[in-house]
Amino acid sequence: MAQIVCSELTLGYEKKIISTGISFEVSAGDYLCIVGENGSGKTTLMKALLRLVPTMGGSIETSDGISHGDIGYLPQQTEAQKDFPASVEEVVLSGCIGRRGFLPIYTKADKIRAHNNMRRLGIDGLQKLPYRELSGGQQQRVLLARALCAADKLLLLDEPVSGLDPSAAAEMYKTIEELNRKDGITVIMISHDIGAALKYATHILHVGYTPKFFGTKEDYLKSGAYADSYRGEEKE
Amino acid sequence: MKDVFLTLADYFSYSFIRYALVVGVLIALSSSLLGVILVLKRFSFIGDGLSHVAFGATAVASVAGLSNNMLVVLPVTVAAAVVLLRTGQSTKIKGDAAVAMISVGALAVGYLVMNTFSMSSNVSGDVCSTLFGSVAILTLSKLDVWLCVGMSAAVIIFFILFRNKIFAVTFDESFAATAGVGVKGFNLAVAVITAMIIVLAMNLVGSLLVSALVIFPALSSMRVFKTFKSVIISSALISVVCAALGILCSVLLSTPVGSTVVAVNILAFLAFFCIGFVMKRR
Ligand SMILES: Nc1ncnc2c1ncn2[C@@H]1O[C@H](COP(=O)(O)OP(=O)(O)O)[C@@H](O)[C@H]1O
Ligand SMILES: [Mg+2]
After folding, report:
1. What CATH class has B2-281?
2. Which ligand places an atom closest to the C-alpha of A42?
3. ipTM of the complex
């Protein structure tokens, strides 16, 4: 059964339309990759799913036991975070912020949850270290652990490997695959890396191409969207 | 050395000097806490813009001959804070250009009004003390002191109660919003508190130097400290120590309070910069 169903979504800011006619659905355990060139509205789509930005038309429905608080988000890194004074532990714990309501402190359960997620991602030795002194790959793991603290049914990942060197990227992909296969977490990921998308995803959504493509990976390989956008690259 | 203490003891037998010290330290404490948020959120320019608006409002209020300037200056500055925050987030007008426009405009109008309509015989003296703080130690009424104590207490309680939310929103606004934190309300609260602190701090250091009081302690502590908690605590300490030292110096040397406090903050920044540099090299 579908966890998220989007139909005929129109996205934009103020009055400017960025993308229209986006339809897709995601079921429990799926691994959906969103591909498309820069500026085609991938990040905006993800923000719309999280209700951070309003949609201009169409509908987004969540069901199958998924509500607002079950979605974990890994945003694109911002410039300000690169020199932000914070320990790894502080960042990961902040994933529990939504669980607290008006309580001003984190509980014992939150701390255990944070440590479990750090262990799960192999960063449990780093908790006292400053976030800004970690490598890019470690920083992404910290942010992923934070997302897991917030929710563990559905993960929305916005370019989780951008800026990582190839080996760190490969490890990150492996970790995400494990979360999807072993723990049954539904993954929606934006990626520039079509090779990785085809390797790990079960479904592909191609935005920024008309007509937009949504379907299984196998169907995508036969589609015009794939042929027109990536035929050249494949041979390299 | 003994002389110095005797002189100080002498000064501190006056209640207005004690008031000035208490108020100065409280203002420094609350503005440094806020400064951490403003610096990390890249909002320092809003503090700067607001201090100019507060100058304009003070000029108008004093020319209009009001008994208590605060009643005009505070609401005007709070309103400006809300407007600046809105425009800062809109993509249509460039945020920094909007702030520059409003702040320079308020500065010009303020000076124009003071120069044209003021009944005072010493206009340039008035302008100077609004911009750079009073020349001698500030004289405060009991009401001013209680107002300061109340507002500082409010800021400190806000920080203690919301410290985790403050971290979550400053580190990553989008994430905090998805986790269910009311980011809009939070930003509004920060804007209002910024306006309040700037109006308060203007009494101590004058409107041009307010930003220094807000950003210096945070920048100093970030040279050396690397976790959010330690940055918050250390910038509060740095700010309190610098304010107390600055006020004492200004009493002893009869220098203007505001610029002395800022000068001490600059020295502290240089010291922390060097410590940070040495720590990095090792
Ligand atoms: N807050 C915003 N206000 C107005 N336009 C925006 C905003 N954020 C992004 N855009 C515009 O929307 C388009 C799509 O952006 P985005 O969703 O980030 O694309 P992608 O993630 O696919 O690279 C871009 O043209 C961008 O300039
Ligand atoms: Mg993007």
Report:
1. mainly alpha
2. 1
3. 0.89
Nearest-by-Cβ selection for B228 from A90, A95, A133? A90
Chain A CB contacts of B41 under 8 Å are 80
Half-sphere exposure of A211 (CA within 13 A, CB side): 8
B268 pLDDT tier (thresholds 50, 70, 90):
very high
Q: Which atom from ligand 1 is nearest to the alpha carbon of A207?
A: 22
pLDDT digits (tens, 9 = 90+) for A179-235: 999 999 999 999 988 888 888 999 999 987 777 788 888 888 888 888 777 766 654
Contact B171 A95 (CB under 8 A): no
Q: Is the CB of A19 under 6 A from ligand 1?
A: no
Q: What is the structure's pLDDT at B245?
A: 95
Interface test with B, best of A43, A53, A94 (most B CBs within 10 A): A94
Domain extents in chain B: 2-281
Q: Which atom of ligand 1 is nearest to the CA of A208?
A: 22
Taking only the tens place, the pLDDT of each residue in B149-181 is 888 899 889 999 999 999 999 999 999 999 888
* pLDDT, tens only, A30-78: 999 999 888 889 999 999 999 899 999 888 988 766 766 788 999 988 8
| Domain boundaries, position A194 | 1-66+156-163+187-236
Taking CA–CA distances from A75, the nearest residue in chain B reads: B175
* Measured torsion, CA atoms of residues A187, A193, A198, A199, in degrees rounded to the nearest 10: -80
Provide the domain count of chain A: 1
Q: Which of B179, B222, B226 lies at the smallest CB-CB distance from A97?
A: B179
In a domain, A39, yes or no: yes
Query: Quick one: which ligand is closest to A159's CA?
Result: 2
Chain B residues whose CB is inside 8 A of the A50 CB are 174, 177-178
